[in-house]
Amino acid sequence: MKHQVLKGQQMLSQSGDAIATYKYDENASVRLLYYAIIMHEYPFSIAQHRYFVKFIKSLRPSFPSKSRVTVCKEIMELYKEEKNLLYAQFNKLSCRVSFTMDTWTSIQNKSYLCVTAHWIDDHWKMQKRIINFMHVEGSHGGIKLSDTFFANVLNWNLDKKMFALSLDNAAANKVAVEIVIENAKELLVCDGKFFHVRCANHILNLVARDGLSCLGNVIGNIRQFVTIIKRSPLQLEAFEKCAKECGLDPKKTLSLDVATRWNSTYIMIRDAIYYKNAFDRLAKKDKDKYGHINPSSTDWLNATNISKCLKKFYDVTLLFSGTSYPTANHFFRKFSEIKMAIARWCDSSDLVICTMAFSMRHKFDKYWEMNNLALAVGAFLDPRYKHRMIELYMSKMYGSDKAELEKLVFMNVINELFAYYSAVINAKSTTKGSSSRESEFVPHKNTCLVDEEEDEVDLDELYATTSNDKKVSELDLYMSEDLVKVNDNEATFDILSWWKGQVTNFPILSTLARDVLSMQVSTVASESAFSSGGRIVDAFRSRLKPEFIEALVCCKDWKIASEKDLEIEIKTLSEPMNDVDLEDAAAIGT
């Protein structure tokens, strides 16, 4: 293969280990400018900023000047181009897609509905794309939400590929999902029984706040104490001196919370507990400033005990705050442990802990009753757990009679899902086989309307049927095999890679796993996983027309995803390339 060398300035590659030939491409450079505006959320007018223009001209005097209007128009064209590419990608999908739908708010209190698609691609990598970010006027009633969601899905030609929709627990959302299921039942898996997924993070926030509320004025006193210390260099110096005198690390973080983020309050209390003796010492030295707000020994004890309880919620919520959306297999175990912990706290001899637990239990159990089967299906498809872990936790959570009933209900759900996917896949195979046979059909030389041997029954069919009846199903085989043991850190186990390697062994179950594991247990993005205040559209974006906001939000999301995909592709391709290089080197050496 001949390589064409373009004349131009030579430059080092990004890795710094090779020299590449540079050639100026005006269209590519303009495109990069637009992506800089999109990714860093610069105003469209930056292209006209005096010193920005000077900077660009110093690099390339011929670079075209762009007005704010032109930038806006061409970014919209870029959005349409990228949207068409994504639309084509969706059309090629051989799996189902799960969705999350949540609300953002602008500083003018305008509401925007964000719909995100989640799926596992052909390389068994989790993918997500924001497909709509639209302004919703008026009240968010269930009918309006359902109409908006389904219109978006139709617009992307994903109506026949829906698997699940994750929403928070608002009443309007419940109505919206019921309407979607009623109108699209024949398009959904098992008539939509598994379509509605309630946001786990929403219930964690509610339950954790119940725990914090049991501390009463203690939180306010700690907050006031920390505020005084952090706002005054003199007070901070005095506090650090007290910390040293108590044998504590004065440079360890002392946090101030944010009202809408319960985890920040948890962290503030956790850090304050570490410095308890320093707080007491400072309060004794300056009674006028701190004496009235320093928590009592009982307050500190209650704060310590409740902080230990809330750590369980904090650790689970951290699952939502990673850069990648977690797969659905993680949550049954975590939520089962929370359920058992709340039950244990209800029997506590500590009145504060007992009161907190009873307050938590009602909200958590209500969520659990509606979602435990969805969480359990995800865990069942984890080869480290399968049905055995589900049954183990059910035995621990319920009495023996109820546990047996719950196990039966769970296995009925698994069998129903497996039967659905078996029927779909077998129907596809039959259709493909019929088409193949029709195309290969050759008429018999002696064709006639009546064949004397036509009424004779071929007994081979009977034996074939008997043989098939004895075949072990994929589901039975999967359940009978040993659990996969992970010797090192459990967190490193890649369930998607495991299922990718099992496609041949379990064609039906792997298809089921691909759809189920893309289901999102939370609607919350990583940056706002702990917030009850919702997502906020910033001051610059909120001044734009809704269609421009959608273009900017979607393009940024798609670009981040495409760069992530490129990194994975380069990593995948580089591994065999390195092997080839070693072989070539060995050949040269001989």
TrEMBL record:
Main subcellular location: nucleus
GO CC field: nucleus
Subcellular location per the Swiss-Prot or TrEMBL entry: Nucleus
InterPro entries from the UniProt entry: hAT-like_transposase_RNase-H, HATC_C_dom, RNaseH-like_sf, ZnF_BED_domain_contain
Key word DNA-binding present: yes
Domain hAT-like transposase RNase-H fold: 321-421
GO molecular function, one term: protein dimerization activity
UniProt keyword annotation of Nucleus present: yes
Name of the protein in its database record: Transposase
Species the sequence originates in: Zea mays
